[in-house]
Amino acid sequence: MFKKLTLVILALFCLISCSGKKTVDLEDQKKDPYKIYQEGFDAFEKGDYFFANKKFSEAELNFENIEYAAKASIMSSYALYGISFYDEALDNLKRYLRKYPADQNIIYAQYLKAIIFYEQISDEKKDLKPLIKATEEINFFLKKYPNTDYAIDLKFKKDLIQNQLAAKELYVAKYYISVQKWIPAINRLKVIVEKYQETVFVEEALHRLVEIYSYLGIESETKRYAKILGYNYNSSKWFKQSYKLLNKDYKIVSKSQKKDEKDKNFFEKILKKIR
Question: How far, in Å, CA of 168 to CA of 189, rounded?
């Protein structure tokens, strides 16, 4: 949905920007870059991105006006992106960034570049390279253009990536736990705690550290991670499990049980006063 919305906004912007068409002779009409661009845009609106890319590329070569040439170039990149020709779109964007460094759409080009890397993320358990590359591109954008509208979307996507990376670390840590390889398991869990503190996996990582150190009999580290877990996530299920592990008599009391005990204590106090 967001992709389509961005496509429409950009397309309309470029159409308006290139609408100041010059009058040309009929014999030169075939080489008229404005006409070529319009053909590309018409195809683009119909979803024919192959033909659109061809026409935008042709228009860029024929535009004498550098501003319009730059717009044709970036529309070509977007058309390639629309048909998932990611490598070609990235190559075109890199060329655009080198050739038109002062263009007004440079921020959008950097955003599109980050989005293309992000959309190549598939299975983080098999290949981390797309995740790492997408993170690098997003961090570059957020550092350079932190106050743009595009930054809001990329911050959200960065959070999703962080969760995926943390999930990968936890997946590997659990494998090491299952084969009792404690040191590599601890190292993986510490990466989550230290590097991915804002993800949903940090609570479980802290609990697993409590479990391992308790099993190994390292009391100082057990208490250390239990305190961190309790201080930051004392209402989570992982804290309850850690607390139960360290306190053998611990019982989870339901709300109804608490109410019964409260009522019992209240009536006992009343009886004492009567006596």
Answer: 11
Whether residue 103 contacts residue 67, with contact meaning beta carbons closer than 8 Å, is answered with: yes
CA distances from 213 to 218, 223, 232 (A): 5, 9, 19
Give the CATH fold of the 1-150 domain: 1.25.40
pLDDT at residue 26 tops 60? no
The position carrying tokens 């997946």 is 171
pLDDT at site 125: 58
- Report DSSP letters for 196-263, one per residue: -TTSTTHHHHHHHHHHHHHHHT-HHHHHHHHHHHHHH-TTSHHHHHHHHHH-TT-----HHHHHHHHH
pLDDT the model gives residue 247: 82
Per residue in 29-57, pLDDT (tens digit) is 457 899 999 999 999 999 999 999 999 99
Q: What is the DSSP letter of 26?
A: G
Domain borders along the chain are 1-150, 160-247
d(CA 86, CA 83): 8
Alpha carbons 91 and 156: distance in angstroms, whole number: 26
Tokens of 99: 């050739």
Q: Do 1-150 and 160-247 come out as alike in CATH topology?
A: yes
Phi-psi region of 22 (alpha: psi -120 to 50; beta: other; left: phi over 0): beta
Hey, what CATH class is 160-247 in? mainly alpha
CB 189 within 8 A of CB 173: yes
Angle between helices 129-144 and 149-178 (to 10 degrees): 150
Q: Which amino acid would we find at residue 146?
A: P
Q: What is the mean pLDDT of residues 85-100?
A: 95
